[in-house]
Write a structure and sequence with these properties.
The complex is a heterodimer. Chain A is mainly beta. Chain A has no helices and eleven strands. In chain A, the strands form two sheets. In chain A, strands 2, 4, 5, 6, 9, 10 and 11 form a seven-stranded mixed sheet that branches. Chain A has a four-stranded antiparallel sheet with strand order 1-3-8-7, with no helix packed on it. Chain A is globular. Chain A starts with a strand and ends with a strand. Chain B is mainly beta. In chain B, 0% of the residues lie in helices and 56% in strands. In chain B, the strands form two sheets. In chain B, strands 2, 4, 5, 9, 10 and 11 form a six-stranded mixed sheet that branches. A five-stranded antiparallel sheet of chain B has the order 1-3-8-7-6, with no helix packed on it. Chain B is globular. Classes of the chains: A mainly beta, B mainly beta. At the A-B interface, strand 5, strand 9 and strand 10 of A face strand 4, strand 5, strand 9 and strand 10 of B.
Chain lengths: 113, 110
């Protein structure tokens, strides 16, 4: 158990809809990362937050947005969903004493039908 | 594009054999990490090697780093069927950002 909690574990939704994925980082970790993993694109970095502020941006679509709240939990919002958005979405966290080591949650499986 | 590139993309061996995976990268790094992912699960950190280290061991894992060649290797000795997974390298920079490669899929046949 990495200590990173993601909900929901599985989600099936229709094209055009909007979903929110939630993440609770490890206790004390200030950095939260979001990754997307699909069969054809591999593990793609989406975005990183540090203590509530956006720190780094990767291949995140404009239809996607994220935020980190004062209690350090984070949400990834995916809107106007397309079939190609079906993927496993990971949240990960790291802290001041973990160096570059990132701790991953078990992921949220999103299926868009 | 990803910083680290693993080689080979897929590797299939018999139980008891050693498995070697390689990772190449392009820019300077602070450290390099290896992660393991079982199918459909989250990535699990295996080992981190700093840029001033050349070799590191952890159980049956041996990681080497050659900064002059910008490459790293992960050796799993005496492999077991339970080692079947995807293995990713990730390069870490001084700002604390890690960039992952595309992974090597290892299959260990019993």
């Amino acid at each position: 158990d990495s200590g990173v909690t993601q909900t929901p574990k599985h989600l099936i939704t229709a094209t055009g809809q909007r979903v929110t994925l939630r993440c609770s980082p490890r206790s004390g970790d200030l950095s939260v990362y979001w990754y997307q993993q699909s069969l054809d694109q591999g593990l793609q970095f989406l975005i990183q937050y540090y203590n509530g502020e956006e720190r780094a941006k990767g291949n995140i679509l404009e239809r996607f947005s994220a935020q980190q709240f004062p209690d350090l939990h984070s949400e990834l919002n995916l809107s106007s969903l397309e079939l190609g958005d079906s993927a496993l979405y990971f949240c990960a966290s790291s802290g001041a004493f973990s160096g570059n080591t990132i701790y991953f949650g078990e992921g949220s499986w999103l299926t868009v039908v | 594009s990803q910083q680290g590139e693993e080689d080979p993309q897929a590797l299939s061996i018999q139980e008891g054999e050693n498995a070697t995976m390689n990772c190449s990268y392009k820019t300077s790094i602070n450290n390099l990490q290896w992660y393991r992912q079982n199918s459909g699960r989250g990535l699990v950190h295996l080992i981190l090697i700093r840029s001033n280290e050349r070799e590191k061991h952890s159980g049956r894992l041996r990681v080497t780093l050659d900064t002059s060649k910008k490459s790293s290797s992960l050796l799993i000795t005496a492999s077991r069927a339970a080692d079947t997974a995807s293995y990713f390298c990730a390069t870490g920079d001084n700002a604390g950002k890690s960039t992952f490669g595309d992974g090597t899929t290892l299959t260990v046949k019993p």
